[in-house]
Design a protein that fits this description.
Helix content is about 60%, strand content about 0%. It starts with a helix and ends in a 12-residue tail after the last helix.
């Protein structure tokens, strides 16, 4: 209980400082944050982007790498672009937490037309990467609307922002809106919810992969809230260092 109280206190301090210092246009996230975010979130999906590969992709200088690595550089940058989209959208507040934003995130990281970027699934896949119970395909739009109503209703009232985000994510992964990249899309959207309120994103480290999958398969979001809390605690600690969450102003 004390650990939860301390975390909420640290979160509210971070939020207050963030909102006080907020500029008309958002600063860019720092390179170390982008490196960590891209690496760990894709490791959760079994995509082992190495930090040196990510660093090279973020330079936007593909002439420096051999040609067969260009598709990899593009995949990494698509995820970078999705993070930047979420980062910028969060600056605009709760009104960006809506279906078209979710679809836009999905289109950004799922560009192949065969993967139906931004289009809801039309079947309930037997073989998939996640193993929690999901709703039938014909209920996706209805259940997604209920998730967004829950988020809007609780957005300014939730006393524990991490549990609130974990519950929203748990509900969203039950909806499982897309056949391809449902987890990465849902985590980016969940971080939009957190950052829209002024809180840091929850970047789940790769070593928590099993705990994350098991928490999603649990009927209640409490285990997922623990995974989120640990992830946010680490990021809060790092944000106190000179690397911070955003690029230093020149």
């Amino acid at each position: 209980m004390q650990r939860t109280t301390d975390l909420i206190r640290a979160l509210e301090y971070h939020r207050a400082q963030n909102l006080i210092q907020r500029q008309p246009k958002p600063d860019r996230p720092s390179i170390p944050l982008l490196l960590s975010w891209i690496h760990h979130d894709n490791m959760l999906e079994g995509r082992p982007f190495r930090t040196e590969e990510i660093a090279q992709a973020l330079k936007d200088q593909d002439v420096e790498v051999v040609k067969y690595l260009h598709p990899l550089m593009q995949r990494i940058r698509r995820y970078r672009d999705a993070i930047l989209m979420v980062w910028n959208a969060s600056h605009e507040g709760a009104h960006r937490i809506r279906v078209d934003t979710l679809k836009r995130i999905h289109r950004t990281i799922t560009p192949d037309p065969r993967d139906r970027g931004g289009l809801f699934r039309v079947s309930s896949p037997v073989h998939r990467d996640y193993f929690q119970t999901i709703c039938s395909a014909d209920k996706v739009q209805y259940n997604l609307r209920k998730v967004l109503e829950f988020v809007q209703d609780e957005f300014d009232k939730a006393c524990d922002p991490i549990r609130f985000a974990a519950e929203a994510h748990h509900k969203l992964m039950h909806v499982y809106p897309f056949r391809r990249n449902p987890g990465t899309t849902a985590r980016l959207f969940t971080n939009l919810i957190l950052m829209s309120r002024g809180y840091p994103p929850a970047i789940i480290p790769a070593h928590q992969r099993d705990a994350y999958y098991k928490a999603l398969n649990h009927p209640e979001p409490d285990q997922l809230a623990k995974v989120f809390s640990e992830a946010v605690s680490v990021l809060l600690e790092r944000s106190r260092t000179p690397l911070g969450l955003i690029e230093a102003r020149g």
